[in-house]
Design a protein that fits this description.
heterodimer, A: alpha+beta, Glutaredoxin, four-stranded mixed beta sheet, B: Beta-Lactamase, Heat Shock Protein 90, 3 domains, five-stranded antiparallel beta sheet, 13 helices, rod-shaped, disordered N terminus
Chain lengths: 101, 493
């Protein structure tokens, strides 16, 4: 998984949660796009958790997830959400940038 | 839906805006096909994943969301209004069109929406409208953005109910206004809650209580002494006002107050809207100046009373003595009225000077006026500028009157050649100011065979103190009188 690819965070990594719905095309695309984005940055910058809501729909409550796929920047606060398959790399990076509101 | 119940009324404006942006972003992502699954709540109120398949799914999603949303085509025809919007604006459930939406808006809102739809064809725009739904005013935040519908350029508008937020802002503004009104008041104003605890106090309260009364019980911090029977205390005033009765204009003293110790206290229930009292407003008007004026008035009345009594005693004594020395009623009438007029002349002078000191020259001139007005050249006065206090002025007035009467009857003013000289003498080692009355050029003087009242007045009037008094001599060349005004009654220049 992506967690393994990124390894341990050296200092204050951005904690990301990607919500997917099983094997839908957009979910698969989102995983692939996020893996590519992470690979382009230095290791340890992101800690990513992938939650499959097909398996455990209740987990959608924590971040009030409506549409899938959705990537949540959980830390640092404030929480930011990026809805969609993350194909717009620039947009994703802008949203993930700390302090970007 | 998995979207939490709105709870919009508890959110801050910023959070609300953030939620709105999130909802719009969700819609955009759905519109633009960036998502392919949604979280929905099944009839058992469990969350489950709903995979989108075709238009029906989008429609189901739009219907289920609790944000009002509408779509228009290029010609501004209403293509679709979701369930939340139909309920918000009380539009019909079926076959809703632009006319229904138009009818739901008043003229001002309609103009705003038309302008918004025009501007939003180019880029996203927002606007606020207010409208009446039933008897309640509702505030809506509209957000409009271009929407590509196949080959047509449509428009999507979301409607968010921000009534609670607007009301909260209005309430906040009104509270700020109330605060500034309280703070601008010259009187001390204290606001208490239902428990009599002070919640607001303006700057004027500092004159009555040195500390910060906020958070304390009013009756504990403002120690009022109420002048009545003791039945009414500070906490009673507060309780009365909180229970809905106004208390108006009670005079009270605040012994511990740093500056203002006399106040006029009033209290009224604090009503927010038409509800029952949610506290009370207490005003305390500074009575210090009024109290000082009242004290001054009392003092003056006491002084007046004292003077009237003294004057009456003096008049009574003049009357008795005049009666005992005059042999006829006519003689009594002339002598008595002359003396009363002499007294009145000095009184008038003193009254004109607010009963402060007056100059000896003024007294002498007032008393001699009736006798020598046609023969000023025969009177010479020297150095009479010294000022004397009312007690000495009255005595001096009576003495000069007697001397002048005597001079007119028997002395220097009884013929055409006589003269009178009045001069002041002062020796530093004497405790009095000397005034000499010297007559000359009159008929040869014969000492009186009996002592009349006039003589008594002359010799005794200034004897109210040991250093005061007078001596009169009758040398044949003219009457000579030396008066001594006690230093205590002479005002040093």
């Amino acid at each position: 998984m992506i967690d393994d690819a990124l390894g341990a965070a050296p200092s204050e990594p951005l904690k990301l949660v990607l919500y997917i719905a099983g094997q839908t095309p957009k979910s698969l695309a989102a995983i692939a796009n996020l893996e590519r984005i992470c690979a382009e940055t230095e290791p340890g910058k992101y800690v990513v958790e992938v939650i499959d809501l097909k398996k455990d729909p209740k987990l959608a409550r924590e971040h009030n997830i409506v549409a899938i796929p959705t990537l949540v920047r959980q830390l640092p606060v404030p929480i930011r959400k990026i809805i969609g398959d993350l194909s717009d790399r620039e947009k994703v990076l802008v949203h993930l940038k700390v302090g970007a509101e | 839906m998995a979207i939490a119940e709105s709870g919009y009324d508890t959110l801050s404006a910023e959070e609300l805006r953030h939620r709105l942006e999130e909802a719009e972003d969700t819609l955009r992502a759905i519109r633009e096909g960036e998502v392919d699954a949604l979280m929905v709540r099944n009839p058992r109120r469990e969350d489950e994943v709903f995979t989108l398949e075709g238009d029906a799914s989008y429609y189901a999603f739009m219907e289920a969301m609790n944000l009002g949303a509408a779509a228009f085509d290029e010609e501004n025809r209403l293509l679709y209004a979701n369930k939340a919007l139909r309920e918000l604006l009380q539009l019909p459930a079926d076959q809703v069109d632009a006319n229904h939406l138009r009818a739901a808006l008043d003229d001002v809102s309609r103009e705003t929406v038309i302008a918004l739809m025009k501007d939003a064809r180019e880029a996203k725009r927002t606007a606020e409208i207010a409208m009446l739904v039933g008897s309640d005013e509702m505030h809506l935040l509209l957000s409009a953005a271009p929407l590509q519908l196949g080959v047509n350029r449509g428009l999507a508008i979301t409607f968010t109910d921000i009534t609670a937020k607007v009301r909260a802002a209005a309430a906040e503004a009104s509270e700020r206004a109330a605060h500034s009104i309280i703070n601008s008041a010259n009187e001390a104003v204290v606001v208490c809650d239902v428990n009599g605890i002070v919640t607001h106090a303006n700057a004027a309260v500092a004159a009555i209580y040195a500390g910060n009364p906020v958070g304390e019980a009013f009756a504990d911090v403002i120690q009022l002494n109420l002048p009545m029977t003791g039945l009414l205390q500070a906490d009673d005033i507060v309780s009365l006002a909180i229970s809905g009765s106004s208390v108006q204009g009670i005079e009270a003293t605040v012994p511990d107050a740093p500056r203002v110790k006399d106040v006029l206290i009033s209290a009224a229930p604090l009503r927010v809207g038409s509800d029952k009292a949610s506290g009370c407003v207490i005003t305390m008007v500074d009575l210090s100046q009024r109290k000082a004026a009242e004290k001054q008035q009392l003092l003056l009345m006491g002084e007046l009373d004292h003077r009237v009594k003294n004057t009456l005693a003096l008049v009574l004594s003049i009357c008795k003595r005049t009666a005992s020395t005059e042999e006829t009623v006519d003689g009594f009438q002339v002598a008595f009225s002359g003396r009363i007029q002499a007294l009145a002349a000095t009184h008038n002078l003193l009254a004109d000077n607010n009963w402060s000191s007056i100059s000896i020259a003024e007294v002498v001139s007032a008393e001699l006026d009736p006798f020598v007005s046609s023969a000023q050249a025969r009177l010479r006065v020297e150095g009479l500028d010294a000022m004397v206090m009312p007690r000495a002025a009255i005595a001096l007035g009576l003495v000069v009157h007697e001397l002048a009467t005597n001079a007119v009857k028997y002395g220097a003013l009884s013929n055409d050649t006589g003269r009178v000289q009045v001069k002041v003498t002062k020796n530093e080692d004497e405790a009095w100011l000397g005034i000499e009355w010297l007559e000359s050029g009159g008929p040869v003087v014969q000492p009186p065979v009996k002592r009349g009242f006039g003589q008594t007045v002359i010799t005794r009037s200034l004897q109210y103190m040991a250093s005061g008094g007078a001596e009169i001599e009758y040398p044949s060349t003219g009457v000579r009188c030396r008066l001594r005004v006690p230093d205590e009654d002479v005002v040093s220049a």
